[in-house]
Amino acid sequence: MRYQLKVPSSYRSLLRGCLMIIIIIFVIESLIINTVLLYYIWSAIAILSDFSTSGRTLIDTLATYKTFQNIVFSGKDQGFRKFIDNTIGRLYIENDITAYCMSDELYKEKRIEHLPVTISRIGFDVSSSGEVMAILRQMQSQKSKPWARLVVDIGANDGLMSSNSFNFIQMGWSAILVEPQNSQLDLARRNHIGLTNQHQDQRVQYVQAVISDHDGQERLYLSPDIVAMESRVVSNELLNDHSIITVTSLSVKTFALKYKVPKYFGILSIDTEGMDAK
C-alpha cells in the first residue's frame, strides 16, 4: 500500500510566496551590487581618460574629484598619521645586538665584537597600542640593565593578538604566559612554533590559571566575543550562569615560587579584565 503525503493548499501557497520573496530579494541585491560595480568601473575609466588627455599628473587629476578630496581631507585630519603609526610606525629592525642589549651582560662583559653575526630581521609590533616599541625605546635608553630577559604575561590569551610578549619571544626572551582558557593557550603554543627554542637559555612556559590573592579555584566568565576577549573572574551571584567555568587560582607568592620568577625581570604585562589592580 502506498501513502502519499498531502500538503494543504494554504501551505503550498505560503511556500511559493516565501520562494518568490527570496528570489525577488536576490534579484534586487544583484542589481544593486552590479550597479555599484558598474559605477566604480565607469568612474575609473573616466579618471583614466581624463588623466590621459589632460596632461596633468595623476594626483592633480584625482584632486579634481570630490571623493578624492574628501579622502585627502580625512587623511590630513589625523587619518594619514594614524595609518602610518599603525603600519610603518610599528616596524623595527632586530638583530643580535638589539636583543643582547636588553640585558646587563653587554655592559659587564664588554664583548660586542664576540656576538655572532646574523642577518637582521624586520619585526612588526603586534601590541595593542604600540607598547612594544615604547618598551624597547625605554630599555635601550637605560645605562644599566640588571633585569633577566623574561616576560611575565598575565592574561596572555592567544599570545599574538594585541600581545605584549610575542615580539620579545621572537627576540629570544623567555616568557611565562598565564591564561585560564585552555583553548587560548593552545593557540598561543601554535602561534609560537619556531620561536620558543632559539637558544638553550630561552624558556617559554604556558600556565593555565588565574593569578589572584589565594590558591585554590576561581569562577571565570567566558565571553562569547573571542575578538573583544573580555572573559573575567566573577563573584558568587553569577554562579549558575552557563558561561562560567572553574579554573585554577594561584597567589602571587605561589606563582613566583613555582615558576621561579626572578626578583628583577624585564616585563610584567597584566590584562585581566577588572582584576588588574588586585
Description:
- The model has no long low-confidence stretch (mean pLDDT 80).
- Helices cover 41% and strands 18% of the residues.
- The strands form 3 sheets. It has a 4-stranded parallel beta sheet with strand order 5-4-3-10, with helices on one face.
- It has helices at 9-54, 58-62, 66-85, 96-100, 105-109, 131-140, 166-170, 182-191, 252-258, and strands spanning 91-94, 121-124, 148-154, 174-178, 204-207, 210-212, 216-221, 232-233, 244-251, 265-270.
- The chain is flat, with a radius of gyration of 29 Å.
- It is α/β, with parallel strands linked by helices.
- It starts with 8 loop residues before the first helix and ends in an 8-residue tail after the last strand.
- Helix 8 links the parallel strand 4 (174-178) and strand 5 (204-207).
List keywords for this structure.
278 residues; alpha/beta; 4-stranded mixed sheet; flat
Briefly summarize what is shown.
41% of the residues lie in helices and 18% in strands. With 278 residues, it is α/β, with parallel strands linked by helices.
Question: In terms of topology, how is this protein built?
Answer:
Blueprint: H1 9-54, H2 58-62, H3 66-85, E1 91-94, H4 96-100, H5 105-109, E2 121-124, H6 131-140, E3 148-154, H7 166-170, E4 174-178, H8 182-191, E5 204-207, E6 210-212, E7 216-221, E8 232-233, E9 244-251, H9 252-258, E10 265-270
Parallel strand pairs: 3-4, 3-10, 4-5, 6-9
Antiparallel strand pairs: 1-2, 7-8, 7-9
